[in-house]
Description:
Elements: H1 2-21, H2 24-27, H3 30-39, E1 47-49, E2 59-66, E3 75-81, H4 84-100, E4 106-111, E5 114-119, H5 124-138
Antiparallel strand pairs: 1-2, 2-3, 3-5, 4-5
Amino acid sequence: xxxxxxxxxxxxxxxxxxxxxxxxxxxxxxxxxxxxxxxxxxxxxxxxxxxxxxxxxxxxxxxxxxxxxxxxxxxxxxxxxxxxxxxxxxxxxxxxxxxxxxxxxxxxxxxxxxxxxxxxxxxxxxxxxxxxxxxxxxx
Length: 139
């Protein structure tokens, strides 16, 4: 009986692990989200990797996204974090910065382990398009 119970527990753990590792979120990268932005016809310019100083070892990936319609060297960032704690800390950083001064306001949106941060000069309706595109890719 004890062996049967152990087998059932082990089988359950393996099944749950397999389901979790096959989730779409686990296989989506920042490049996939950026490609989705492009496929959806959103304004995307040059893309570059972010230096580690921007949330360093709390993230898996970080990309700088230029948005030509916002002006030269303006746009935002897309991060994929290692865990929710790192993501929440980064989102809080950007949100609090915007509360301190309107000059530092930026749009932020989190989904799963991804955080999108865009320049506050972007219109709300335009940011909503990026947000929706990201959500569709991650779901």
